[in-house]
Amino acid sequence: MHAKFFVFSKTIVEDGAGALDVRDNVVWFGSSNLTHHSAKTFNNAITIYGDADLYLGFVGYFGDLVDLNKSKHKHVEHPDYYNDEITPKKGFWKSGSGKVRVYASPERDGNLVLRQLKKIKAELGCKVHVAQAMITDVDLVNRLIKLSQDGCTVKVATTKRTKVVKKLKRNNISVKINKDIHDKSILVYARFNSPEFRYFVFTGSHNWVPSADNKNDEILVRLESESLYYAYRDHFYRSYND
């Protein structure tokens, strides 16, 4: 279990003028663990208020995390979230607006992150910023190299010079090593399954390691928002330039 999220039926929020307001259907998700160490490293989190569809999706996912650990599934070493016999949700739910999409792992035969990266049209003007605590997945690295070779500007911030991270550098991708990075985010400005350029933030709990796809309970959240993209880009450069 590597996912990091909270759901609240109601919270009290202070508005910009100092007044208190009650909000329903609240979801918090991000990269941070509830540890002292996480408070000292680069992390990110998002809170979304008043979205019943997103809230109920997370509540259902929490219930599945509990059910999948009951005796009826003890024989399943690594549950497949895309197996209808285990869950009818097919590992996916979204916000009422459709601007937020949540993908759950594990998936026995697939790579959630790679499927998203393959939706990017590589060309001049395309930008991809990756901040990841750990990168060992060679398929994801090869996809970044292909995006870069075909015209995208690709920058990566991570904690260690793994073999595949060294491969990124050999292929002229800018990589910065910062041992304090605990983020798990991808920022995309590109034609993304569309004729026009769009702004996306991917966040959640996924490290770029094989176990995140086919073993761990994880969430990968895709948000479409220009303002969020630029806020996350500022955060990216704080760790990239640190």
TrEMBL record:
Biological-process GO terms, alphabetical: lipid catabolic process
A GO MF term: RNA endonuclease activity producing 5'-phosphomonoesters, hydrolytic mechanism
EC number: 3.1.4.4
Domain Phospholipase D-like: from-to ranges: 127-238
Top-level taxon: Bacteria
Reactions the enzyme catalyzes: a 1,2-diacyl-sn-glycero-3-phosphocholine + H2O = a 1,2-diacyl-sn-glycero-3-phosphate + choline + H(+)
Broad EC category: hydrolase
Pfam families, alphabetized: PLDc_2
Keyword hit for Hydrolase: yes
UniProt entry keywords in alphabetical sequence: Hydrolase, Lipid degradation, Lipid metabolism
PANTHER family: CARDIOLIPIN HYDROLASE (PTHR43856), MITOCHONDRIAL CARDIOLIPIN HYDROLASE (PTHR43856:SF1)
Annotated family: Belongs to the phospholipase D family.
UniProt name for this protein: phospholipase D
